[in-house]
Amino acid sequence: MTTTSTFLHTSLDTSTENMQFDDMLLEKVKQDSSKRYFRFYTWKNPGITYSYNKTIPDDLLSIDKSKRVTGGGVVFHSPGDIVFSITARLDDPYFPKRFKDKICFVSKKLSSIIQDAAGINLGQSEEESENNILFCNSYPNPYEKYYKSQKVLAFAQRRLRDTFIVQGLIHTQSTHDYFGSHATYSKYFTKGLQQTLDLSIFSQAL
User: Lesser CB count within 10 Å: N end or C end of the chain?
Assistant: First the structure.
């Protein structure tokens, strides 16, 4: 059976609405093995997302927030950031067979797209940082990418029985600009790319 790609740029107002939309796409893939979805969209309002199996500190509860179906730490989303999800069957021939190779494949693809479109070379972290598994930006991940020592491409993923989902974020904006009232967490912020990217570059290259 041929699998077809659907590209979406649907952006909703709240963290919960955006995460529920990804949940809906995952359900669609479970029900129809001929589908895969690439969703790249611009985040609208300051918010945070966090793993389905974790809780967050009480002083972050006032922020627009949502649990997400994937793992990983707390992610601070700034307006203008590009958020994405990729949902497909585990046996989808578009991706490598091994799960970790699928994530590596996506990471390399996105890094290449950003380099070609904006001339920005992303790399690995070369600095030691305080590890706190509650926060995404505090610990290294071999698939995530950095720019000028700042994490700018972040991933969270989950493998299910027959399907998988990758959720991620391209920090185009500085977290410091939108979460200053929570400066106690500034060590987990990023300055981002400080550059906007056109959403069309992803649908043209994936």
Answer: N
HEC per residue, 46-81: CEEEEECCCCCCHHHCCCCEEEECCCCCEEEECCCC
Residue with tokens 């890094």, as numbered in its chain: 111
**Prediction pTM value:** 0.92
In this structure, what CATH number is given to the domain that contains residue 27?
Answer: 3.30.930.10
Q: Helix, strand or coil for residue 156? A: strand
Amino acid at 22: D
Q: Each residue of 28-42: pLDDT tens digit? A: 999 999 999 999 999
> How many domains is the chain built from?
1
Residue type, 181: S
Host domain of residue 12: 4-205
- Stated as kind and residue range, the H or E segment containing 27 is helix 15-31
